[in-house]
Amino acid sequence: xxxxxxxxxxxxxxxxxxxxxxxxxxxxxxxxxxxxxxxxxxxxxxxxxxxxxxxxxxxxxxxxxxxxxxxxxxxxxxxxxxxxxxxxxxxxxxxxxxxxxxxxxxxxxxxxxxxxxxxxxxxxxx
Length: 126
Known about the structure:
Blueprint: E1 9-11, E2 23-26, E3 31-37, E4 45-51, E5 54-56, H1 62-73, H2 75-80, H3 97-102, H4 110-125
Parallel strand pairs: 1-5
Antiparallel strand pairs: 2-3, 3-4
């Protein structure tokens, strides 16, 4: 695992008909370039560049997200080695935080997949 204290991933939710994205995703560099209206009267808008360890686009499935997360973090082995891991979902209301973490019975989220992976790893050790 990398020695980063915080590893940040982004998951983009599908836009609905009323939304118009104000960002560009550069998947090669794992950056999101967003524009927003400036509070200053000197300029109308500003660009903001945000780096992520991985960006999961609107088409990424729960399984793709989880497998990508595991590949980039080695979280299960870190947990089994006694290290603490915290997964936080951040975003506005309705952006898919609960779905990403919990999922559905047919399509589980990160929490359920992580628990399954941990117990399967323990079964292999024993």
